[in-house]
Please model this.
Amino acid sequence: MPRLGGMPRPDVPDDLGRKVPVPHEAAKVLSLVPSLTEALAATRPEALVGATDWCTHPADLDVTRVRGTKNPDVRRIVDLAPDLVVANQEENRELDVRRLTDAGVAVWVTRIETVPEALTSMSRLFEVALGWGVPPWLAEARAAWDRPVPPVRARVAVPVWRDPWMVVGRSTFTGDLLRRLGYDNVFGAHEERYPKVALEEVDRDDVDLVLLPDEPYVFTEDDGPEAFTRPTRLVSGRLLTWYGPSLLEAASFDAG
Model:
């Protein structure tokens, strides 16, 4: 497998502590995570050789598609011979990471549940795993989020699916991002990360605002708001759930 800068560096731990033979400087990278695809494309687009069918940013992304985040085409990925595949603990399956690793592909797995973890994880990805250094947009994002957590401005619920209704629960990147913007997730102390709930548990008096993102479920003006008596807002799922250049825009998110 050709690499820049000689042989790969062995025994470099990713976010899960897995030892990964990362290159000195990656020339060919494949991403299995939409938000990380955007981050890679914004930094060194010529190095990105493959991405999932769900990778929608940037809009003009022109790379080989390797199916979805939960069912990547392992054979196609191996044939592309990337220096490194980038994955995420929540987005991707351990089984697929293992299959790629067994096939001789280096896979760097990120683990992100908070905004600080996103900034640290991406810094390690670009500096340690890829050998590219910290990109300007990441330095700007770190500066934008280097601020105190504001007082609570509203208590919110964030559905991510319907039939059955599912919401953002505990220990999620989305919940932490909202908290740092002054929005208190009413399901933040739930025992599950994405619990299934009854509609009346969401549409209750102590919820000031129901935020309806356009992913993973595509809530629209005609699909979602009509279910609630509480005030609702249609919002960008990318701003609430992605970690990458979108963090710059998310820093000024206002649900109104």
